[in-house]
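Backbones bend. Shown next:

***
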Amino acid sequence: MIEEIKKMLWASADKLRANMDPAEYKHIVLGLIFLKYISDSFQTHRMQLTLRFQDSDDDYYLSDTDKSYLIEELEDRDYYKESNVFWVPEGARWETIRAQAKQPDIGKRIDEALTLIEIENPKLKGILDKRYARVQLPDGKLGELVDLISKIGFGETGQNPRDLLGQVYEYFIGQFASAEGKRGGQFYTPPSIVKTLVAVLAPHQGQVYDPCCGSSGMFVQSEKFIESHGGRIGDISIYGQESNPTTWRLAAMNLAIRGYDYNLGKEPADSFTRDQHPDLRADFIMANPPFNISDWWHQSLEGDHRWVYGMPPQGNANYAWLQHILFHLKQNGRAGIVLANGSMSSSQNSEGDIRRNMVEADKVELMIALPGQLFFNTQIPACLWFLVKQKNRRKGEVLFIDARKLGTMKSRVQIEFLDQDIQRIADTVHAWRGDGETGADYADIAGFCRSVTLDEIASHGHVLTPGRYVGAEAVDDDDEAFAEKMQKLTETLGEQMAKGAELDALIRQKFGGLGYEF
């Protein structure tokens, strides 16, 4: 069922492709899906209430003399709020929207419906993107989209509607990122990379922060991790920040549909110049900052208290992000960050000095080299940094993992980690830390992982590229000596060359018989 829904909804997006930029129709489609979902959830709860009001064994039972008040009772907002269901006013319910789909002012009516929902649900205030009245589409296109989305019944699939919508959102965000190319990839981290970050950090409870949260994929995956390990939604507190206004709204919608409590700040804002959580010290931080961003600097950041390990260069924000994240960590906190490979070895404009200071202060716990072709928006090779405020174990050591040979081609242009790849990385890290569930002991594996002392890292100029430390991958030993293998290969090559000479002579003979000279 979910695959049918995905195909149908992507077909609905295709209806707009010829008339609108992907960055625009993303919000048109996702906004309508959100509206359909909360309306379906409201109607499903309304039907459940109706049954309970008529069940004499239920606490909500209405006696025969009270049945005349049934409709009035169904309009009592408290019944919905206590079950964490958004209250949808009559003018904003999907059946009302669908009945008006062919009206020329359908865009204006959708905007009004979203405004009504925000008024009734303060949690959604300011996050619903009301752009339908001004969208430039040929007559009837928006109505056609409403009709298509009307075919999706979020309460009729047999699957939890919230889980279903979550899957639809994840699918759409990924599809849009692919369609938009570079611009889409700016706010989208491939799911397998998010899963890797979460699996290594293992955020069971506490405060989770993402200073450039995009569409909130890190938070969603963190909640999934907790649930899969027997925890409950709400065991973590979500804090995020995002500078792009439309993406900020998308993140809030993505969290709201799942019923998560979250704090994305009062408004979309730049994390460096308008930190929305200045006093936050988080247990876990996960981030995929834009790679090598050059226009981040502002005069007000000169001498900022976050630059503990050195002033970041004005032409590249990589080391500003690393220090911003370290600043926001609790004393026993842990962070995972996606950055371009250059961050591991660059010595330009103070970056080498900052990296040296961070390494010598023992703030770097783990470095992972990733394969290429993981991201929609760039072919720049990427890596994962894992930072700590204070090490409880493995002091004076850094674990290096070279994961460049892991992963499987998802398409002609993109690689993704499979679950077994992620599990291998996570098991290795947890064994090294000594906190793994399997109880396995850590051991260096040539070509894959190695625990390295700070002294050795210093001898390499504080370069943090895993390939420099893990060595070459061990070759399988089949008890055949190298000399014997070489002899066999040489003999085979000699035979093939002799055969080639014979064929060459035969060709010359045949063509010579036809009067050709060589």
In short: The two ends are 69 Å apart (CA to CA). The chain has 18 helices and eleven strands. The longest helix spans residues 22-53. Confidence is low (pLDDT under 50) at residues 182-187.
